[in-house]
């Protein structure tokens, strides 16, 4: 399969307490375990980075399906909540809640667009069947 784009990032340090940077140097972040998980906090964490990526990707997918449907959405935003949970058999599992806001369409069209975006978003396709992902739409 031929890739349209490949992102490359490297994490160093002590696992969740360390640094991460992209190969092009456009993103460099310090990493820290959040206080809610017993860490010092004060820096970003992998769940926040995943949440930002998923929100941006899903928003792009929403805009694409809206254009294809000739739906004039406006004031759109996607909020991604990424949670980490312990698994009964050990290890950890993520879950995601995507909250989509938009105006310019009625609730039925907003719901339809969000479901269509969920089918084409690469993050949704990567997580489907692996983790719980909830999506909802609110028309403002």
UniProtKB/TrEMBL annotation:
Domain of life: Bacteria
Any one Pfam family match given in the protein's UniProt record, by short name: OsmC
InterPro entries: KH_dom-like_a/b, OHR, OsmC/Ohr_fam, OsmC/Ohrsf
PANTHER family registered for this protein in UniProt: ORGANIC HYDROPEROXIDE RESISTANCE PROTEIN-LIKE
Family: Belongs to the OsmC/Ohr family.
NCBIfam families: organ_hyd_perox
Protein name: Organic hydroperoxide resistance protein
Source organism (scientific name): Arthrobacter koreensis
Organism ancestry: Bacteria, Bacillati, Actinomycetota, Actinomycetes, Micrococcales
